[in-house]
Write a structure and sequence with these properties.
Blueprint lengths: L1 H8 L9 H11 L5 H29 L12
Helix pairs in contact: 1-3
Length: 75
């Protein structure tokens, strides 16, 4: 479950490793784009991604499927 929350918020974190690269590509099209522009554009995608992953996890738990080979859901 940690990876669900982590993967959804990576792009809106100022500590994201690829932030300078994404900003460089953004500034090719909009020279005034900055970190705030990137975060404000990515928040809707991040929230939708979080909702979809959460629903997927709930379905996974409801069916009692293992999370990996030989690994049960509950300890």
């Amino acid at each position: 479950l940690y990876r669900i929350g982590d993967s959804c918020t990576n792009v809106i974190s100022p500590l994201f490793n690829y932030l300078p690269i994404i900003l460089a590509f953004m500034q090719e099209y909009d020279e005034e784009a900055g970190i705030g522009t990137l975060i404000s554009l990515m928040i809707p995608y991040s929230l939708i991604f979080l909702a979809i992953w959460s629903i997927f996890a709930m379905i996974w738990f409801a069916f009692g499927l293992p999370i990996g080979p030989g690994t049960p859901i509950f300890i």
